[in-house]
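Materials and Methods. Structural model of Pyrophosphohydrolase. The 94-residue sequence of Pyrophosphohydrolase from Egibacter rhizosphaerae was retrieved and submitted for structure prediction as follows.
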Amino acid sequence: MHLAEFQQQMATLYGERDRARGLARSFAWFTEECGELSRALFRGDHADREREFADVLAWLASLAEQADVDLATAAERYASGCPRCGSTPCGCGR
Ligand SMILES: [Zn+2]
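The predicted structure was written out as tokens:
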């Protein structure tokens, strides 16, 4: 699934509920999910990690949708290399 399709799927599934909740409370849920990802990374198994990455990505898509940001467009920032030095791989600090 491409990033734009994922964002659209999240908007279709949860968009109405997310907009009713609002950006601030959605951001709080996003940070909660980041905590769950942290636990999965350091104490979970691979299935836990996949699930928590999906949940963090879902909440990130929700925030982007509410903020009128297209994630695929935002990701273009890294399409041509490091945004700071322009190199691939990054040459910053070398
Ligand atoms: Zn760089």
